[in-house]
Amino acid sequence: MHNNKSVRRVKEFLAQQQVDYKIVFLPDSARTAKEAADAIRCTIEQIAKSIVFIGKGTKTTYLIIASGVNRIDEKKVAKKIKEPLEMATADEVRELTGFVIGGVAPVGHTQQVTVLIDKDLFAHENIWAAAGHPKAVFELTPADLETLTQGKVIEVS
């Protein structure tokens, strides 16, 4: 798994940005944001989950990175970006990002995505994001997340 090509893509992207984040591998029991938080000893609010949506009009790929406790309010986000959204299917997620659901990293996508970041993540010094595999995560600051993704910080819930 440490040689997983999706994880390698994330590592390479981070190395190109001259940031050295350690990728941590979770136990098999960590299937939810809560279980992941318990495994890495952080709060569920510090888990930055990445959910892929497609703009119904423009077909733009939107990656919404939300705090682990927040449920994304699609209507609120749609109003902000001025187009309705639909959640990507598992196949679309893989096709549009190069990652599988549960392992979608905020960086290292195979195609261009528009990143929207939950402002609630900024309440924390450090957050944890997927690193290209459902069992791989890395720790970073919300400010680094914004810089690395060129994301727009909005209210998502």
Quantity of strands, as a count? 8
The CATH topology, please? YbaK protein
Main beta-sheet annotation: 8 strands, mixed
- Please state the second-level CATH architecture: Alpha-Beta Complex
At the first level of CATH, the class is: Alpha Beta
CATH superfamily: YbaK/aminoacyl-tRNA synthetase-associated domain
Strand-pairing-aware structural class: alpha/beta
Gyration radius, rounded: 14 Å
Low-confidence stretches: none
* Percent of residues in β-strands: 15-25%
Q: What would you call the shape?
A: globular
Distance between the termini: 33 Å
Note the run of SSEs as H and E. HEHEEHEHEEEHE
Mean pLDDT metric: 94
Count of alpha/pi helices: 5
Domain count, please report it.
1
Share of helix, binned: 25-40%
Task: Explain the layout of strands and helices.
Blueprint (H helix, E strand, L loop, with lengths): L4 H12 L6 E3 L7 H8 L6 E9 L5 E7 L6 H8 L3 E3 L2 H8 L16 E5 L8 E4 L5 E5 L1 H8 L2 E3 L3
Parallel strand pairs: 2-6, 3-5, 5-8
Antiparallel strand pairs: 1-7, 2-3, 2-4, 6-7
